[in-house]
C-alpha cells in the first residue's frame, strides 16, 4: 500500500488493520508466563502446570479463530486497492 492507501478508508478497514496487528504483532508470552507459572513441588503441581498451559494455549487459539472470522468478514469491505481485498460474491 502507498500513501493514502494506508489511511483508514472506512471503519471496517480500520477494524481489519487493528485485528491484523493484534494477531501478528502482540506477544502473549509475558501474559502466558504470569497466568501459568506456578512453583512445582510435586506431581500434582506438574499436572496443574500442564493444565494451566493447555488452558492458556486453547484460549489463544480460540481467539485467533475469532480474529480470523472477523477479518474475513471485513476483507470484503477493504478498499479495492488493498492487497487483501476480496470482492463480494
Question: Could you give the topology of this structure?
Answer:
Layout lengths: L10 H15 L3 H8 L6 H33 L14
How would you portray this structure in words?
By secondary structure, this protein is mostly helical. It has one domain (7-75). It is built from three helices and no strands. Helix 1 packs antiparallel against helix 3. The mean pLDDT is 90.
Poorly predicted spans:
none
Query: Beta-strand percentage?
Result: under 5%
**Amino-to-carboxy terminus distance:** 24 Å
Number of strands: 0
Q: Tell me roughly what share of residues is in helical segments.
A: 55-70%
Radius of gyration: 19 Å
- Overall number of structural domains: 1
The number of distinct helices, counting runs of at least 4 residues, comes to 3
Biggest sheet overview: none
Average pLDDT metric: 90
Query: What would you call the shape?
Result: elongated
Structural class designation = mainly alpha
Q: List the secondary-structure elements in sequence, H or E.
A: HHH
Amino acid at each position: 500500500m502507498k500513501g493514502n492507501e494506508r489511511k483508514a478508508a472506512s471503519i471496517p478497514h480500520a477494524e481489519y488493520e487493528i485485528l491484523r496487528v493484534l494477531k501478528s504483532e502482540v506477544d502473549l508470552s509475558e501474559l502466558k508466563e504470569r497466568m501459568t507459572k506456578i512453583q512445582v513441588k510435586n506431581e500434582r503441581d506438574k499436572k496443574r502446570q500442564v493444565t494451566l498451559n493447555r488452558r492458556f494455549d486453547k484460549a489463544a487459539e480460540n481467539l485467533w479463530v475469532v480474529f480470523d472470522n472477523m477479518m474475513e468478514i471485513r476483507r470484503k469491505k477493504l478498499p479495492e486497492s488493498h492487497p487483501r481485498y476480496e470482492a463480494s460474491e
